[in-house]
Write a structure and sequence with these properties.
Blueprint (H helix, E strand, L loop, with lengths): L2 H24 L15 H4 L5 H9 L9 E6 L2 E6 L2 H10 L17 H4 L9 H9 L5 H23 L8 E5 H18 L12 H10 L3 H12 L4 H4 L6 H21 L6 H10 L3 E2 L5 E2 L2 H32 L1 H18 L5 H6 L2 H13 L6 E4 L9 E2 L7 E2 L4 E4 L1 H5 L18 H4 L20 H18 E4 L24 E6 L4
Parallel strand pairs: 2-9
Antiparallel strand pairs: 1-2, 3-11, 4-5, 6-9, 7-8, 10-11
Bound molecules: protoporphyrin IX containing FE.
The site of protoporphyrin IX containing FE has 27 residues, from helix 14 and helix 20.
């Protein structure tokens, strides 16, 4: 390239860099200066850092650590990162109507499964859809699903019984794979009425296609990164939220199950039946354009519940088991609580016992979800009514958030901030005891997100974790194995928290009765 072209390119880069940083400077908003022109997150895009580590780094940066919020440049877009829980509460809870949409976006025309689902959909469609889907996870529904979850819990024990013992009568297990198989079997059984058999069959199709959603090879990683980094380019790149063959597999399975029930008249009162009812009642979403909930749009909801459900729940479950492996005294206290309940109710603990009578179990899970939140941040887009000039950050700052600006809440970094959780890397379930829980600053603990767009399946996910842990600990003591990792590092190409290391432990038969 001739010298003059090089100089022109450098001049353009300098100008763009100056322009972006000048924007934050002009408004008195702190920011972290990163690679010229490309901006922040480039090291994540180049897979030099995991998203979790990178966001924690800029959260703790000398230029931002004392600020209520700071600015970042996501390639060519400017975004805000909110550090102060009071600001999170004001924006995402009190003023949630202006921050109801996520900024992530798929292609409305080219990816109907990816666009018309609860995770990605925008207002005014979101509210209707959430209203239709919420009844599938009420406490009465969970109570009905409970025996099915327990059945899968028993299958998990049967699977572990089949694991070869070593000469010292221990069974070595890797929790990430075990938990993913457990949660995939649960969602297939409880929501779709289908036996996925992931625990008994390593080659199960459900596990194969589920793994593909979260397996980030270079192409899939680029695909997923585009939804966050460059949503405006997604329609031109032809990227889809779900891998095509996973989408095809689930569509076939779900359509077959719907057709089977319509022919047989069987009613299990589960998610598939709710979908059939929505179709028969000619339910629609939207105010001006009324979009019917049928065909692919109906199937998209099932596919999304599948995606949103098993990986998240399996992540919380496997990290909880990992911490119980490393903290035998916490495990012992939990086993005593389980033992007391078994003495009272017998081995098949009732739903009410798990939900209401096991406070320590709840504390252990809450602490695991604090230390290992599934997502690095939750995100929204400022969405103002027509004619509005911006969202004022009074009384925190005089910056006015422009319409469509993305807003990130770095939950992983906030959960590990000593200001809110002293000695943050210590696994200490007592932070969530009755006496201590009141001192947790509102909106400093958000493993399921915050505001009206919070996780729809939080109770369902927690119930699964509770069933798996009580079943496992009622039969086995978990011990460190030679392969148990001392510390964890996180995958650089994943958008959910994934350790590079396997979460290995030895299981010792020690039945509570
Ligand atoms: C323990 C396991 C789980 C964790 C830690 C978790 C976490 C989250 C988080 C952080 C969000 C984003 C919330 C926000 O933006 O404010 C979310 C959204 C969501 N989750 Fe979960 N989740 C879990 C289990 C589940 C399960 C079992 C289901 C399905 C039944 C589910 C369905 C959803 C859906 C549909 C959304 C989008 C809600 C909306 O936009 O209206 N999640 N989850």
């Amino acid at each position: 390239m001739p010298l003059v072209a090089w100089l022109a390119a450098i001049a353009i880069i300098c100008y763009l860099t100056w322009k972006r940083n000048n924007f934050w400077n002009r408004h008195g908003v702190p920011y972290v200066f990163e690679i010229p022109a490309v901006g922040n997150f480039s090291s994540v895009a180049l897979q030099m850092h995991s998203m979790f580590d990178y966001v924690a780094r800029i959260y703790d940066h000398v230029r931002t650590r004392d600020a209520n919020f700071f600015g970042v440049n996501i390639f060519f877009r400017k975004a805000l990162v909110i550090r102060n829980p009071d600001m999170v509460k004001k924006m995402l809870v009190a003023d949630s109507r202006y921050f109801i949409n996520r900024q992530m976006c798929t292609d409305r025309e080219g990816d109907r499964f990816g666009y018309y689902n609860l995770m990605m959909i925008k207002e005014p469609l979101w509210k209707d859809l959430r209203g239709y889907l919420s009844p599938s996870v009420t406490s009465s529904r969970l109570r009905r699903m409970f025996s099915l979850i327990e059945e899968i819990g028993n299958n998990m024990l049967a699977h572990l019984d089949g694991v070869q013992q070593n000469p010292t009568k221990l069974r070595e297990t890797e929790f990430k794979e075990l938990c993913a198989r457990f949660t995939t079997d649960v969602i297939a059984s409880t929501f779709f009425g289908i036996q996925a058999n992931c625990l008994s069959d390593e080659e199960s199709e459900f596990r194969y296609y589920g793994r593909k959603i979260f397996e980030y090879g270079p192409k899939r990683a680029l695909n997923m990164a585009a939804f966050f980094f460059m949503p405006e380019l997604v329609p031109y790149l032809g990227f889809k939220l779900f891998p095509r063959d996973t989408e095809r597999f689930l569509k076939t399975i779900i359509e077959q199950e719907i057709a089977r029930r319509e022919t047989s008249g069987e009613n299990r009162g589960d998610f598939i039946d709710s979908m059939i009812a929505l179709k028969n009642n000619e339910a629609t979403i939207g105010v001006e354009e009324k979009i019917p909930l049928k065909g692919d749009i109906l199937v998209a909801q099932a596919v999304t519940f599948y995606m949103a459900s098993f990986e998240t729940t399996s992540s919380v479950l496997s990290f909880t088991l990992y911490e119980l492996t490393k903290n035998p005294e916490i495990q012992q206290r939990l086993r005593e609580e389980i033992h007391n309940c078994i003495k009272k109710y017998g081995r098949d603990l009732p739903y009410e016992c798990l939900v209401n009578e096991m406070p320590y179990l709840g504390m252990v899970i809450s602490e695991a979800a604090r230390l290992y939140p599934v997502l690095p941040f939750i995100e929204r887009q400022c969405s103002l009514p027509a004619g509005a000039t911006g969202y004022k950050l009074d009384p925190f700052h005089n910056f006015v958030v422009p319409n469509k600006m993305p807003v990130l809440v770095p939950i992983y970094a906030i959960h590990r901030d000593p200001k809110y959780f002293p000695d943050p890397l210590r696994f200490d379930p007592d932070r969530f005891s009755k006496d201590n829980a009141d001192s947790i600053v509102p909106c400093s603990y958000m493993p399921f997100g915050v505001g009206p767009r919070t996780c729809l399946g939080s109770h369902f996910g927690t119930l699964q974790v509770k069933v798996a842990i009580t079943r496992l600990l009622s039969k086995y003591r978990i011990l460190r194995s030679e392969s148990t990792p001392e510390t964890l590092t996180y995958r650089k190409n994943a958008f959910t928290l994934h350790s590079n290391e396997g979460l290995y432990a030895d299981l010792e038969l020690d039945e509570l009765c």
